[in-house]
Structures are given as structure tokens and as C-alpha cells.
Design goal:
- The protein has 6 helices and 9 strands.
- It is α/β, with parallel strands linked by helices.
- The chain has a single domain (about 45-220), classed as Rossmann fold (3-Layer(aba) Sandwich), CATH 3.40.50.2020.
- Strands 4-3-7-8-9 form a 5-stranded parallel β-sheet, sandwiched between helices.
- Helix 3 packs across helix 4 (about 110-120).
- Bound molecules: adenosine monophosphate.
- Adenosine monophosphate binds near residues 70, 72, 170 and 175.
């Protein structure tokens, strides 16, 4: 079979340039400009442009768990959705890029999920803060009040260098008692809490005020 003659594509058939402002169709009138994107996150499909709305739909609310009167914010649907997980991690990590974070301290247990991923993105150490009796080496321990009763958190004593800049991460900020206790463990080692970061903040419970003057970054805010 004779080889078909190859011809250079004409202007008409050439694929239009992608992702720039060149109007298509030569002399035809240029289309009206697109409205400006409402979100800065790169590589997010148009339907996901509003990352906040997308992620918010994936927080499941479970009434009366783990006890009557608590509306539990279940983040497992968010974790099951890779796009949502990326959106949250990108937004939080972006806030701290170039700020020099030496270590991310994650609070057991859901703080490990986000804290570990953020530490990798920020090129920082990851340090777990755990419930009592879980860490095998010498630990510092802090007691703190919960809504009902007391609890304790521990951190390995050799986790942080003196003067280190630390980001404390958990899934949710409620009254701020848990995060403040983790902050106290950071201070015990002569390190500084540069900021606290959460996926969800329950604003009416006053956690942000309790953690002041340290900056608090949260992705989703609820009344
Ligand atoms: P707090 O010390 O009051 O700020 O409580 C924050 C800690 O308790 C975090 O580790 C959360 O995972 C957990 N927590 C508190 N309230 C809720 C809630 N409504 N839904 C899910 N987790 C919660």
C-alpha cells in the first residue's frame, strides 16, 4: 500500500494552544473572558474549584457519639477520598511553605494521619504525642482537663531540639485542651510552637482563644 503523503497541518486543523489566552478561530471574535478562578489550588478539576465545599460534604456528623450530646465529626469519608485529602493537605502545607518548620507534632490518633503527611510535605520531622503508656522510651507527661474528667499526653524526651520551630497538628479543635497540652510538651523541651493546624475547628468552643497568641490555622470552621 502506498504511503499516504504527509501534509503539514493547516492553521484550521492545528490543535488550539492550551491554557493560554490566545483566542481560537483566527479572525473570529474572541470569546468573553472567563470569570477568575475562585480557588488557587492547582490541578483541581473545575467542579472541585471550591475545595472547601467539596471537603465539607465529606465530613460526616454522628449525633451522640461517643456519648450523648456530642455531635461527632467523622473524617473517615474525607480520608477515603484522595482528592479531598490532597486539597486539605495542600492548603495547610501551602500556608507554612517557606516558614521553616523543624518538626510537626501529631496528636494521637487522628493527628497522626494529617501530621505525618504534612511533615513529609514540609520536609520536617514527625513527632508523635501519645496517650499514656504507649511510648517505649523516656517521656515527658502532661495532664489536662477534658469536658468530663482528666487525661494525659506523653512525648519522648529526646524528640525536639532546643529552639526548634514546631507545628502542632490534630484533626479537630474543640475546647483546645488537647492541643494546649501538646504545646506544653513542646515547651518542656525548649522548643517553640510556631502554629497549631487543624482540619476542623468548632469555633463556639473557644479553642482558638485558649491557644492565643500562637496562630491557629484550620481548614473548615463550624459554628
Ligand atoms: P479539645 O481538647 O476539646 O479541643 O478536643 C479535641 C480532641 O478531641 C481532638 O483530638 C478531637 O479528635 C476530639 N474531638 C473533640 N470533639 C470532637 C467532635 N465533636 N468530633 C470529633 N472529634 C472530637
Amino acid at each position: 500500500m502506498a504511503a499516504r503523503k504527509r501534509t503539514a497541518p493547516t492553521t484550521k486543523t492545528r490543535a488550539p494552544a492550551r491554557g493560554n489566552l490566545t483566542p481560537r478561530g483566527g479572525a473570529k471574535k474572541a470569546p468573553p473572558p472567563r470569570p477568575a478562578a475562585r480557588h488557587h489550588l492547582p490541578h483541581v478539576a473545575p467542579e472541585l474549584v471550591d475545595g472547601l465545599t467539596y471537603v465539607r460534604r465529606l465530613i460526616r456528623e454522628i449525633p451522640n457519639f461517643p456519648q450523648p450530646g456530642i455531635l461527632f465529626k467523622d473524617i473517615t469519608p474525607l480520608l477515603a477520598n484522595p482528592k479531598a485529602f490532597h486539597i486539605v493537605l495542600d492548603a495547610i502545607a501551602e500556608r507554612f511553605m517557606g516558614e521553616h518548620i523543624d518538626a510537626v507534632v501529631g496528636i494521637e490518633s487522628r493527628g497522626f494521619i494529617f501530621g505525618g503527611a504534612l511533615a513529609a510535605r514540609l520536609n520536617a520531622s514527625f513527632v508523635p504525642v501519645r496517650k499514656p503508656g504507649k511510648l517505649p522510651y523516656r517521656t515527658d507527661k502532661v495532664s489536662y482537663s477534658l469536658e468530663y474528667g482528666e487525661s494525659e499526653l506523653e512525648m519522648h524526651r529526646d524528640s525536639l531540639a532546643e529552639g526548634a520551630r514546631v507545628l502542632v497538628v490534630d484533626d479537630l479543635l474543640a475546647t483546645g485542651g488537647t492541643a494546649a497540652a501538646a504545646g506544653e510538651l513542646v515547651h518542656r523541651q525548649g522548643a517553640y510552637v510556631a502554629a497549631y493546624a487543624f482540619v476542623v475547628e468548632l469555633c463556639s468552643l473557644g479553642g482558638r482563644e485558649r491557644l492565643m497568641p500562637v496562630p491557629v490555622v484550620s481548614f473548615l470552621m463550624y459554628d
